[in-house]
Amino acid sequence: MSFGRFLILLAALAPATFAQKPTFTVGWSVYVGWNPYYYMQKSGILKKWADKYGVSVKVQRFDYAPSLDAFVAKNIDACAMTNMEALDMPAAAGVDTTAIILGDYSNGNDAVMVRGGLTLAQIPGKQVLIVEKTVSQYLIERGMAMNGLEGQIKKMKYLNTSDSDIAAAFMTNPDKQVVVTWKPMASQIAKAKDVRTVFNSSQIPGEILDLLVVRTEVLKRPDGDKFAKAITGAWYEVMGQMTSAAPDKALTAIAEGSQDTLASYKEQLSTTHMFYTPQSAVQQVSAPDLKQTMDLVRKFCFAHALLGDKTASPDDVGIQFADGSTLGKADRVRLRFSPAYMQAASQGKL
Amino acid sequence: VNFLRIDARPARIPAWALSWFLFAAGVSAYFFAAQARHRENPDERVMPTVSQMATAFEAAATNPPGDQDGAESPKSWLERFRSSMLATDTLATARRFLISVALLFPAVLLGLHMAMFPYLGAFFLRFFQFFDKIVALSLLPILFIAFGIDELSKIALILIGVAPTVILDTVNLANSVPREQIVKGLTLGAGDFTIAYRIVLKQIWPRVMNSIRLNLKAVMLFLFAGEMIASTDGLAYRIALLRRHMGMETILPYVLWVAFLLFAVDLGMSTLNKKLHPWFVE
Questions:
Q1: For chains A and B, what is the number of CB pairs under 8 angstroms?
Q2: Which chain B residues are Cβ-neighbours of A91 within 8 angstroms?
Q3: Which residues of chain A are under the pLDDT cut of 50?
Q4: Could you tell me the maximum CA-CA distance found in chain B, to the nearest angstrom?
């Protein structure tokens, strides 16, 4: 084909390409509470909802850290992340972010595990295998604080270990006595002999929340609003299938998203508090507990410089709640919890 | 004009300007993109401005690591630098780097002996040819069992990744020494080791050093991988941590600092090579 013909072909194709529906990308990473995004796309549920609202929605799997990077760089429009990362990654980087779906909270998925009957009080000074500056560190330091060991936190010795290797690293090194991680790695480690869980996220229920966040500027556009409605509608249809009388077919397909078996996925679900109905999610997001949780989280982030070196006070990254009240500076709101779409779902308005 | 011809002879000044052109283009492209992003979002973190990076680098070079900055004791600039985050990280990484590079020299000797002594060649060569193709990073769990997750496993990862290449390259270089020289050595009554060390090694040494120089980047790559997998200090450890909160204003200077250090080591080895082997021409 000559170059001239190629240009003509390109020109002929161009209008077809540009006339397409607005396209939105959702990033997710492997985690029990986020695997449904994989199934949502594969089963065609997402396409059904996207067609209904006249938008096109793509779901893309990432590793967790790169998914956050992509969201902060505005390469993707929505992303599954925890409340802590929503605060210290996009919000702290000035990307105004709105949480539209509260999917679940970790109810035992994250755990502090030890060898040889060590207790929490004996952990300071011992090397701890952990992915530093994540919810894992939040978990172990909350555990210390709740057991009156707050003063010992300074003596913690962390060995920053990548999450993909942490299980192998802990199990093959008997001299390392403490590990903090999440499932499925945690399930694998818990099976080893002489290993015991001394603290897990079921002891801080509702503090490690898993969200779907969207850039606020996207939500404000009319097509962005449609996108949010479509993804919320699709999400609760999947939730419905997961709680139906015969959920195994859907659950098997969801487990496939992380190369998991049905049994293993069910085991992970047992320590995950899913908000299967939009009503329950709206209730949690509107509860006053959320403010206390976010206050703990932002103080943790600030104390560990996760809000950035320039940030002089945790108030500099404002958080707005369902009732319109804010934590931090009201003129610097960067993270918003919006019950609007979940509410619409619960009222059958999607 | 003939400036696009093979026999073109650029004058000093234009050649100098051309060689810096892409640097200038890259820096200014970054500068404009960063400015644009900062106009749009004052809290922008992905592309920090030059002044932000300068401040962050200065902080890294004067403040000790750790979340809480302890009591600020007035010390001399040098003392502050020695206990700074940058210096401790650099020291930790440099130690691992130098140990690994030093351990590449026994690998050179092994390669030499493999080429010189046919029975050793028969014993090792096929194995190393196979081993060279192994992607060491995928064997991590086994490395953890054999070497733990502390210093040893990081150095082992580097050696498993880089040493076979150096060994095989040395074998090739040693084999390229004309056979006649070895025969001549033998007829003049030289011993095996005299031939191996005084005739062959002596000749290939500058090329071996170049081979190690080319592998420095691979050494650094494996070292970074190791530090990102499990560690408590080092340049890559710091970068992995800073990524958790988009600390690009420190990450970018760190990356440049690593590039500068590698460049310095490379230049040092190249200079040493020229000093030691003034007779060597490529």
A1: 97
A2: none
A3: 1, 14-17
A4: 79
| B157, B225 Cβ separation under 8 angstroms | yes
Phi first, then psi: give them for residue A258, nearest 5 degrees: -120, 25
Q: Could you tell me if B44 lies within 8 Å of chain A, comparing CB atoms?
A: yes
Entry pTM: 0.85
Give the chain B residue nearest A88 (alpha carbons): B245
User: What is the complex's ipTM, to 2 decimals?
Assistant: 0.80
| DSSP-assigned states of every residue in A138-171 | HHHHHHHHHTT-GGGGGG-EEEEE-TTTHHHHHH
In a mutagenesis test of the A interface, which of B51, B145, B246 is the best target, namely the one with the most A β-carbons within 10 Å?
A: B246
The percent of residues in chain B predicted with pLDDT above 70, rounded, is 96
Query: Which H helix or E strand runs over A267?
Result: helix A262-270
pLDDT tens per residue, range A229-274: 999 999 999 999 999 999 999 999 999 988 889 999 999 999 999 9
Task: Write out residues 48-77 of B within 8 Å (CB-CB) of A.
Answer: 56, 59, 67-68
**Average pLDDT of chain B to the nearest whole number:** 91
Residue A105's beta-bridge partner residues?
A: A209, A273
CB contact under 8 A, A169 and B230: yes
Tell me what pLDDT residue A170 has. Answer: 94
Rounded to a whole number of angstroms, the distance from the CA of A318 to the nearest CA of chain B is 13
> For B147, which residue in chain A has the nearest alpha carbon?
A173
Question: What pLDDT, on a 0 to 100 scale, did the predictor assign at position A15?
Answer: 47
Is the peptide bond preceding residue B141 cis, with omega within 30 degrees of 0? no
What interhelical angle do B50-62 and B248-276 show, nearest 10?
Answer: 70
